[in-house]
Amino acid sequence: MASPKLLLQLCISSLHHITASVFSLVWRWTPGAFKGTDRTLEERKVQNATTPTSVNYHFTRKCNYKCGFCFHTAKTSFVLPLEEAKRGLRLLKEAGMEKINFSGGEPFLHDKGDFLGRLVQYCKQDLQLPSVSIISNGSMIKEKWFQTYGEHLDILAISCDSFDEATNQLIGRTQGSGRKSHLDNLYRIRSWCQQYKVAFKINSVINTFNVDEDMTEHIVELNPVRWKVFQCLLIDGENAGEVALREAERFVISDQQFQEFLDAHSSVSCLVPESNEKMRFLDCREGRKDPSKSILDVGVKNAICFSGFDEKMFLERGGKYVWSKADMKLDW
């Protein structure tokens, strides 16, 4: 069983749903053939380990929403102590990390967003990373957080699967009746991003409940720097199977349906599609998520060297892009 301290989930997605208390990595291959015959296969793999250029840190599994398709379910409430989390981030920076993306669960839920804010500040101010980003459902974000930590954040991505409140209710992207509107939060946060100079992004999971929805008008109005569109994906043990906490089968759409949604929104220039074919490089080659040992225990190279990775697919899916707000030349 993997250490509960800092699991390393091998993935190349900047998704908002992957693994708890986990550093999940997107990397590029570091060239250089191994020379010599006196080392084991494992040592050779470590020697030729990949560079964690872009990292997703899913430091919590807890979430206040109940999205029916979510494949990052709350199996534990464990969150690393702040200083241990910082140590892991420092190790990743030393190994070549350029971009960190904080996710969950809902990352603003733990310690009312202050834990997240301190990590964001540390990554930008102390580690001087070119890009620091967050994926959130937006429900817990307050303007005070922007006032305290906004200057250290490059990109804030808000998950929004529909611009119809009834559809969001069916999906589970809501805190229940009588609570704040998910769409009101979305537009409010968009305004704060403009005010505090944080690049704004939207993530949407396309499923049976929204596959026929035309989102063009709203996306154009919100004008995100990127609109990441995911095809609903099943992961055994998370949102599918006997031990899963979700039953997402009813949300799954075909490849053809997903392509038809993309075709219907082809005029939206910021759209970046993420099909199931591209998302399967989560190290879920056996139909599940298999974490490595903790980077705090074995180091970055040892933790990532036994995974499968397709650099061509990483580039095709738009994994490398302009991710520092200083380079985006946005009109604030």
Specify the CATH homologous superfamily: Aldolase class I
- Overall mean pLDDT: 80
Largest sheet, order of strands side by side?
Answer: 1-2-3-4-5-6-7-8-9
The domain tally reads 1
The CATH level-2 architecture is identified as Alpha-Beta Barrel
- The CA-CA distance between the termini, in Å, is 48 Å
Radius of gyration of CA atoms, rounded to a whole number: 19 Å
Order of helices and strands: EEHEHEHEHEHHEHEHEHHHHH
Helix content: 25-40%
Percent range for β-strand residues: 15-25%
Main location: endoplasmic reticulum
Domain Radical SAM core: 49-271
InterPro entries: Aldolase_TIM, Elp3/MiaA/NifB-like_rSAM, RSAD2, RSAD2/Viperin_antiviral, rSAM, rSAM_sf
Keywords: 4Fe-4S, Antiviral defense, Endoplasmic reticulum, Immunity, Innate immunity, Iron, Iron-sulfur, Membrane, Metal-binding, S-adenosyl-L-methionine, Signal
Task: Give a written overview of the molecule.
With 332 residues, the chain is of the alpha/beta class. It has one domain: Aldolase class I (TIM Barrel), CATH 3.20.20.70. It is built from 13 helices and 9 strands. It has helices at residues 41-47, 82-94, 114-126, 143-149, 165-171, 182-195, 216-222, 255-264, 276-279, 295-298, 300-304, 311-316, 325-328, and strands spanning 7-10, 22-28, 51-58, 99-103, 131-136, 155-159, 199-206, 226-231, 271-274. The protein has a 9-stranded mixed sheet with strand order 1-2-3-4-5-6-7-8-9. Strand 8 (226-231), helix 8 (255-264) and strand 9 (271-274) form a beta-alpha-beta unit. Helix 2 (82-94) runs parallel beside helix 3. The chain is globular.
